[in-house]
Structures are given as structure tokens and as C-alpha cells.
Amino acid sequence: MPEFSRFAVYAAPPPGPLADFAARWLGWDPAAGRARPHPEVPGLPRTVADLTARPRRYGFHGTLKPPFRLAAGSTRAALEADLAALAARRAPVDLPGLRIARLGGFVALVPEGPAPALSALAAETVRALDHHRAPAPEAELARRRARGLSPAGEANLQRWGYPHVMEDFRFHLTLTGALPEAEAEAVRTALAPVLAPLLPRPFPVAELCLFGETAEGFHLLRRCPLGGLTPATGV
Fold this sequence. Notes:
alpha+beta, Cyclic Phosphodiesterase, Chain: A, four-stranded antiparallel β-sheet, 31% helix
């Protein structure tokens, strides 16, 4: 059994056309734990391998609880048990749909309109599992601060080990690394017609997915179905 250096909780599409295309687009299939050949997509400003080099190892996902190292005394089995219990008491979330967009310098899929129920689910996932998280190393904290943080981001970094959670959470499924504006727009234009028939409407978030990191990349370890006992509403 491989050793995992970090764990994360993601939203990941179920097996099907979107998951298959995204695994080939990024070049990494976290469910199978192997590399995949890139697809041919006309109109791109660079090779797919170059466009996806940064997000490749993470696999196609939307972050709910960002990657973390296990705390002293915690185990993968304990983490899985708490994740399954959390999922059982939370409701699935249906987003009206996803759209492809530029976020800063990268390209991603984002919800169409506000998603307060998903934000609430992400916030509880961060809180409920945080006793499994070891404090982030100082070098990691310094690296995040070097990019510039808002006061809320700094508070989140100190409390939760990551700046973009709670009120700063923005759900997205990353498709590229950072690109100049013109290149990011070219990728968005090229991918939009390819992705359009693959995106279900509504777009369901029906599972909390545990991922683990090895030297190769992140692997999908377990899907925990959301049980619907507590509606994930409000923020």
C-alpha cells in the first residue's frame, strides 16, 4: 500500500464522460492512479501538456478541504471514518450548472451564479475534519503569504492552514496553470464547445471524495455519499 504524504477532501465528478475527458485533459487519472494521454483540442495557444503542467498532479477536482498532513495521533482510517460520518449527515448539493471561465490567470469551471449551499458544505468539511490536520510548516505559510493575502485570508491561514476557505472560499475545478490573459482566453474559447455537452444540468455534488498524495500525484481513495440528513443551506 502506498504511503500518502497529504490528504484532501474534494468534489470529483462520478465516472462518466466529464471525468474521462478531464483525466485525459490534465494527463492524470486519480481514480486509476495513472497518467493518461492528452486529447487533441484545436485552437490552443500551447500544447495541452504545457497548459496543464501545474494542476496535473492534483487531478480534476473542486477543493472542499485543502491538502493537509495528518496530525500526530491521527490515522487514515480515523480520517475516513469521520469523513463518512460527516457525509452521512449532510445533504447533496445541486448546482444549476457549471461554466468555463478565467479566474485570475488560470482557466476553470465555476458555478453558474451563487452557491451558498456548497459554501456551507465546504465550511463544515473544513471545520469537522480539522482535528486531523497537522499545522502547516512555516515554509509553506511563508510561501502563501508571499503571494499577498487579505486580512481574512491571513486569519484563515493562521486558523485553518489555508487562506481560501470560509468566507474566501470560491468553488472551482481547475483546468490550467497560470497563463497570460490572451492565452487564458484562447483556452477558454477552445474548450467551451468541447466541455458544453459533458456538463450535466444541474451539476450534482453528491459525494465527499478523499484524495491522498504520493510522489506521482493525488489518488482518489474513497467516495463518501452525501446522505441528506442535514440540508447544506445558507452561509
